[in-house]
Fold this sequence. Notes:
- This protein is of the alpha/beta class.
- It has three domains: 8-115, Rossmann fold (3-Layer(aba) Sandwich); 148-213; 222-379, Histidine kinase-like ATPase, C-terminal domain (Heat Shock Protein 90).
- Helices cover 51% and strands 19% of the residues.
- It contains twelve helices and 13 strands.
- β3, α3 and β4 form a beta-alpha-beta unit.
Amino acid sequence: MAPAQDILKILVLEDDDLDFQVLERHVGSLFPRRYDLIRAKCANDARDMITGIDIAAALIDYRLSDGNSGLDFIKELGGREADFPSIILTGIDSGILNQEAILTGAYDYIDKIALTRELVDRSIQFAISSHKYERQLRNSMKEAEEQAAINREILAVVSHEMQSPVSSLIGYCDQIAESCQTDGTRLSIGKMKVAAVHLEDFLRNLSEYVRLNKGGGEICNGEFRPQSLLQETIEFFSPYTKHKEITVQSEFDPSTSEMFVGDSVRIRQVLINLVKNAVKYSDMGTITVSASIDNGVFTVLVKDNGVGMSEEKVAAILDGSNKWQRPGKELRSGLGLGLSICARLLQLMRGKLILESTPGHGTTAGFEVPLTKASAAVAA
Length: 380
């Protein structure tokens, strides 16, 4: 013997007696019995019923005699986020009204003139099942967002707590290197320092990644000379390029020697990431850093002959969908975290990342960012 089916309570907000009787007759002819219609003639009555009855769905008249609209009542309930789904009843056959009802939050639209028991049953079942799945989806999304927030906090704490010990390790490497008596020991300490610097840089990028994903990141514009910034950045990497027998060649347009207004801190952060990647993933040869300013656009390109990246990885970084991968065959070419951060920082400055690469044949990475001439900024 099949188990008895639960009788679902359906709220019907309908002020017309004849229309309700027709609806009641159609629903009552369903076998086995599925629904118990609970009628409210006005919105106030409906509000009272909702608080004390477990409503499975609501059939709501489009035009109510008290001057209210059924769509307004659906909005009041919460639309598609209400505790139960709503269906609009109307005698108007209008595609525009149908669209308006769905946009308001109704799950279906029933023309009273074409009313049948099959139509009512199908509409109610569709609304209930759709509402159920949408609620499950919203709950899953909420749980995912909460877990993502927890993960961001963990990453922020871990990256912050690890930066100080790593910075101390770099300082100790310098002290030990000064007292080393043999070239071999000094070389080993140098390699240890390079590894520590890379770890420190990763932790710094990780902190920035978390901060940007939380909506952080502000632009602070000030005067600076682009060419000086470029030269300082290249000089910063000179110990690492000498160690790997890499030559850094600079090609700066004279325009970069003038004073401009922009966020030099963010630009330096992007530039350090680009040059660092070029040095890190090149074993020998020449890295070329070129820069120019044309019509207020600061363009920098860093070209290397390192391991390169696949087209898929380049596309993922440029469109912001880059995800961390499990260690595997692409570990040598990195996870792209720094470049993803660069892309986000450049967006904050109304600029864009430039990235071209071929596996085994190197990478050209750069950016374009708008700058204002210092004299023009003062005049403005």
